[in-house]
Design goal:
The complex is a heterodimer of chains A (809) and B (328). With 809 residues, chain A is mainly alpha-helical. In chain A, helix 7 crosses helix 10, helix 19 packs parallel to helix 23 and helix 39 runs antiparallel to helix 40. Chain A is 69% helix and 0% strand. Chain B has 328 residues and is mainly beta. Chain B folds into three domains: 86 residues, Beta Barrel (Thrombin, subunit H); 140 residues, Methylamine Dehydrogenase, Chain H (7 Propeller), CATH 2.130.10; 68 residues, no CATH class. Classes of the chains: A mainly alpha (809), B mainly beta (328).
């Protein structure tokens, strides 16, 4: 039989353009030879040469040459076709060869090719052949694309080709499974190579979206398939392992599936272990929570891997509790690590926790400390949530840590990680004590909730019992809007009454009313308020919350702002001097800053308060000035008359005139600003801005930025800008990102507020220095917000430069 | 826009002290004059003529100690009054007489109002708090023989009884007693065995008042908290909370369901009377007239629905009379 083929090949000759008869003869002989795999080396070599000649010929061969390619041994045909693609001369091949290749793919020859290559793994000299073919199989879209100069058919787009390749791989795996069941030995290493190379080329999504769902189904109850799968990933060479593991972890629908697909890969393969336990958890942080759950769930599902889980938890906690990591790593990474810790905790069982309780406790204490030290609220909250979770895990019976923080979606999501993951771990193959674990994973809050619902039936839903079907609809309710909380005492009417109550009274109801009434009293009677302004400011600054008054902090702040705006200079002097004096709590110092900012904003607002004060709309007081009302009417009537008689030839909206008035902040900006900036570097025994109290420093810097911004168009602005630039320069390398953000805001405010000419004349040197610092920040700062702010500042500077260039000097 | 709440139909002034107890007697026929009894803190019981709105008589029988409960036995001729002098007096008011014919010395120092139930012609049961702190005593009237004494189990820690309601299901079943206690629980007692049938913790604070609708087997209780609790009694004689209603201001001193079971009224510490529909507890009206705590609310027993009145007595010495939801 083989002899017939050989003679046919010989007859066809080695010429470049075999005739149609020769092609037909070879085809017939090939069909007669039967199994193409059984061809001898010599026949194969000849056939290969023949095919190459066919494909590389200058003219399109005659006869059924396309079928010949589909029928001859797939490796030979594939080689010949891909070779011809790489050939430089375009001609008939351009449309024809890709067409043949497409048919090759469509008819499942790719699977046959891979299958054949799998079986020949032990032949001598196969390594080079394998590598060459591997390259061509994996890079086929590129080869076609290059050969056709980018005009490749849709079938060779990576989005189409790699799923087809996946299908071929799956088919080969089916063959492998069949032959294993038949008692034959089989190798999957070539498939592993394909998988690895495809993944490392970044096509995990395409190929694994075909493979993973099928393998998930196949491995469900079949241990042979499971072994094939494990073998498949184990045989992936180390250099490609990372890409493959990443692909599987990201695409597996759950931890149990991942465990079936990967087996104990992480224990056997160092590279995989590194990727799973280090790289994905500690070095990268872009993966979704589901991926994390997959990954850690996978580690938790087997006794051998649980050791790794504990190790991972220890490493995560080490990072979490390291103050340098908290300070320098981005918020997203810290969130990622926190999530990972919570998921790990959800998987731990009682005895395992017992074994590392001391370590957990130590890292929790350290971590909580450095998280609470942070000036970013998100990081503080992250610390609180993680610490609460750890403490609830390690103290199952004793008291647990509880913090007060805002319960928003993020916090809930984080907490849910601690609970949800437990049922995910319950698998049919695992012993029942997993359920106990699930119970233990419930945080104490939930338990107490459950108890309360069973014990007191207070919260039973409104049941619609049969007897209740008729309703009270025939009874029409009266207006009940007047049904409000009963007030026990009347609000004070005079400011001095308020002062008396706030300083001396023991009557808490009166005290509450006074706090509520104070702001409007001060606004209503500015003259009376000015007489006692500093005294009032003092009382308000020291006012402590005596009762559980809703919105107390806001009420007090409003009153403080009212006092400060009514009598700005003395009160500002008092407040700024108190900011740097002894014996205040941090809260009071920050109150001072907030009040200064709010008052400055109000004063600098163009619609001056003095105007609206007498309008009567805000304050229900008797109007003494009817003239002003009528004069307004007069103005309005004239305006309307003009409007009705005038035709305008302008497009767009008619401009509404902004209410205007003198900027009251003009003469006051300096009083607000300079006393604050003076003493920041003089530590007191109770207050060290440059040391521990960097949170207040951050607030101070932000306050200065706002004051600077509000001082636009005032006389003092240039002097303020200069002083502020010096201040920024002194603090520019502060370790706290909140402070740095404030400094960058300061620079923005300066650039926006100080007139450009003054900037260039008075502070050129400083500006240039700042510019180089900004460039540095844009490149190197670990905090994303800082980088963004610095970039904005650079843009502002750039705009400033342009403006100056275009303006006539 | 809903209608503004109505003003009082009329106001009775002149009790001279805070009003603690009210009781209508308007069930008689045409020649009979409808009256309202009011008991005040100075120990006087006033008999108000509802035609003239004047006091017909002032009865002084409790040694100037506050009168906390008033009931009539078959018409306005026989009045039962309970005072803080630890006595319950039976008055004969027929033909202009104003004399105490009989009295019971309860020896109880609490505020708990007694409850009266007519079990047969000429036979009543009366439940009052007894001398011992946690006990309730049930007497038969007019014979004054003790029917039973209801003692909670040792260690139950219920505190004093705060309010009582004797009731009897339809078709001559056994009378039972509902009692609200200082710890916020309501207990259902079986009078024949003297045992607790069911206990329900429906408040955190003392139960100040309760009323029960035996037709629907559903009751309501109020306490010094901001919550009204509606509970029901199921076939197995178990009390269950059905619903709670949050009030704007804390403290309820009295709750009464109108005899036709359509609406109920509460007397609030916030000076306001609240009206709810009884079926769904739909809030219907907030009557704001009094200037001090309202102590007692009571519905009249007029035969014709359109004449039915609501009376409220308050600490501000006034009794307000309202005519509300009379058309339904």
């Amino acid at each position: 039989m083989a002899a017939a083929l050989e003679s046919a090949l010989q007859a066809a000759g080695a010429g470049p353009c075999p005739g149609a008869e020769a092609v037909g003869a070879v085809r017939a002989a090939l069909a007669a030879a039967g199994d193409p795999a059984a061809l001898g080396e010599r026949e194969r070599a000849r056939l290969g040469a023949f095919l190459r000649n066919l494909a590389a010929g200058p003219e399109e061969p005659a006869g059924p040459w396309r079928s010949l390619f589909l029928e001859s041994p797939p490796d030979l045909a594939f080689c010949a076709l891909t070779d011809s693609l790489a050939a430089p001369r375009p001609g008939w091949r351009l449309p024809a060869v890709p067409e043949v290749l497409e048919q090759f793919l469509r008819q499942g020859r790719l699977a046959a090719l891979i299958c054949e290559l799998c079986q020949q793994h032990s032949r001598p000299g196969s390594v080079e052949r394998h590598d060459a073919l591997l390259g061509r199989i994996v890079c086929l879209p590129d080869l076609v694309g290059n050969g056709l100069q980018g005009r490749s058919p849709a079938a060779f787009f990576p989005q189409r080709y790699f799923p087809v390749l996946g299908g071929a791989v799956l088919q080969v795996l089916h063959n492998v499974s069949a032959s294993l069941r038949g008692g034959l030995d089989c190798s999957v290493s070539f498939i592993s190579h394909i998988l690895g190379k495809v993944c490392v080329h970044g096509r995990q999504k395409e190929i694994l979206s075909v493979l993973v769902p099928h393998l998930t189904d196949l491995t469900k109850s079949d241990c042979i398939w499971q072994r094939i799968c494990w073998r498949l990933v184990e045989c992936v060479p180390d250099r490609w392992m990372e890409a493959v593991v990443l692909g599987f972890v990201q695409r597996a629908p759950g931890a149990d599936v991942l465990s079936r697909l990967l087996g104990n890969l992480v224990v056997k393969n160092k590279k995989a272990q590194f990727v799973v336990t280090q790289k994905m958890l500690l070095l990268q942080y872009g993966y979704t929570t589901a991926v994390l759950q997959n990954l850690l769930g996978y580690l938790a599902l087997d006794g051998l891997r649980r050791a790794l889980l504990i190790k991972v938890l220890q490493e995560l906690l080490e990072t979490w509790s390291s103050s340098s990591a908290v300070k320098h790593s981005p918020l997203e990474q810290q969130q990622y690590i926190s999530k990972a810790i919570l998921i790990c905790l959800s998987h731990l069982k009682e005895p395992e926790i017992e074994s590392c309780r001391q370590e957990l406790l130590t890292s929790m204490m350290e971590g909580v400390k450095c998280h609470l030290d942070s000036s970013l609220p998100q990081i503080r909250r992250l610390g609180m949530i993680v610490a609460e979770s750890i403490s609830s895990k390690i103290n199952t019976d004793g008291p647990v840590l509880t913090f007060q923080y805002e319960e928003d979606d993020e916090a809930r999501e984080l907490k849910s990680l601690l609970v949800q993951a437990a049922p995910l771990g319950v698998l049919p193959g695992l012993p029942d004590n997993e359920n106990e674990n699930a119970d233990a994973a419930l945080p104490p809050v939930l338990e107490s909730n459950r108890k309360s619902t069973t014990a007191t039936t207070h919260v039973m839903p409104d049941e619609e019992s049969d007897a209740e079907l008729d309703s009270d609809d025939d009874l029409i309710p009266y207006d009940m809007s007047e049904d409000k909380e009963l007030k026990k005492t009347k609000a004070p009417v005079y400011i001095r009454d308020c002062i008396e109550v706030l300083t001396g009274s023991e009557d808490l109801d009166k005290w509450e009313e006074a706090v509520k009434a104070l702001e409007s009293l001060v606004r209503k009677n500015p003259v009376a308020a000015r007489e006692v302004s500093v005294e009032l400011a003092k009382i308000l600054l020291h006012l402590e919350e005596k009762t559980c008054l809703e919105g107390f902090a806001e009420l007090r702040q409003k009153a403080q702002v009212a006092v400060l705006t009514t009598d700005p200079i003395p009160v500002a002097q008092y407040l700024t001097s108190q900011f740097y004096s002894l014996n205040y709590s941090l809260r009071q110092r920050m109150d001072i800053l907030d009040v200064l900012v709010l008052a400055a904003r109000e004063l600098s607002c163009p619609k001056g308060h003095g105007k609206t004060k007498h309008s009567g709309a805000q304050n229900p007081c008797i109007q003494f000035l009817p003239e002003s009302g009528s004069s307004k009417d007069w103005r309005r009537i004239v305006d309307e008359r003009i409007k009705s008689k005038t035709r305008r030839f302008a497009k767009g909206q008619s401009q509404v005139e902004q209410p205007s008035g003198p900027n009251e902040f003009n003469s006051l900006a300096g009083h607000f600003f300079f006393p604050l900036i003076q003493n920041f570097d003089r530590p007191l025994s109770t207050f060290d801005l440059l040391g521990e109290d960097h949170f207040v420093l951050g607030r101070l810097v932000h306050t200065l930025a706002v004051l600077m911004y509000l001082a636009v168009n005032t006389m003092a602005v240039t002097a303020m800008g200069k002083a502020l630039l010096e201040f920024v320069w002194a603090l520019r390398f502060h370790t706290d990102s909140y402070v740095r953000q404030g400094l960058l805001s300061c620079v923005s405010s300066i650039l926006l507020s100080v007139p450009a000419e003054r900037l260039l004349q008075d502070v050129t040197e400083e500006l240039l220095e700042t510019r180089s610092w900004l460039e540095d920040v844009v490149e190197k700062d670990p905090d994303g917000d800082c980088r963004r702010l610095a970039l904005q500042n650079l843009l502002l500077m750039e705009n400033l430069k342009k403006k100056l260039e275009t303006a006539p000097s | 826009m809903a209608q503004p709440p109505p003003d009082p139909h009329f106001v009775l002034r002149g009790t001279g002290a805070a009003v603690h107890a009210l009781h209508f007697s308007c069930g008689g026929g045409e020649p009979d004059i409808p009256v309202l009894f009011s008991g005040s803190e100075n120990g006087f019981i006033h008999v108000w003529n509802l035609k003239t709105h004047r006091v017909d008589a002032a009865l002084d029988g409790h040694g100037r100690k506050s009168v906390c409960g008033l009931k009539t036995m078959d018409g306005k001729e026989r009045l039962l009054s309970q005072g803080r002098d630890q006595r319950i007096c039976l008055w004969d008011l027929a033909e202009g007489r104003t004399s105490v014919t009989d009295s019971v010395f309860t020896e109880n120092v609490g505020f708990c109002r007694c409850s009266l139930l007519k079990v047969a012609e000429g036979r009543w049961l009366m439940a009052t708090a007894a001398k011992a702190l946690e006990e309730v005593q049930v007497l038969e009237l007019p014979s004054k023989t003790s029917v039973c004494t209801l003692k909670p189990e040792v260690g139950a820690k219920l505190g004093m009884p705060m309010c009582l309601k004797l009731w009897q299901g339809s078709c001559g079943s056994q009378p039972s007693l509902l009692a609200g206690y200082e710890d916020g629980s309501v207990l259902l007692w079986n009078l024949s065995t003297g045992k607790v049938l069911s206990q329900l913790i429906c408040h955190q604070e003392p139960v100040m008042s309760l009323d029960f609708d035996s037709e629907k087997a559903k009751g309501i209780s109020g306490s010094s908290e901001k919550v009204l609790s509606i509970w029901s009694l199921n076939e197995q004689q178990n009390l269950q909370v059905q619903k709670t209603h949050r009030l704007v201001n804390a403290g309820i001193s009295d709750i009464t369901i109108r005899p036709d079971k359509k609406i109920l009224a509460t007397a609030g510490w916030d000076h306001r009377i609240r009206i709810f529909g009884w079926k769904k507890l739909k809030p219907l009206a907030v009557l704001d007239y009094h200037t001090a705590t309202v102590h007692s609310v009571s519905f009249s027993d007029h035969k014709s629905p359109s004449d039915r009145l609501l009376a409220a007595g308050a600490k501000d010495h006034r009794i307000s009379i309202w005519s509300i939801y009379t058309q339904t």
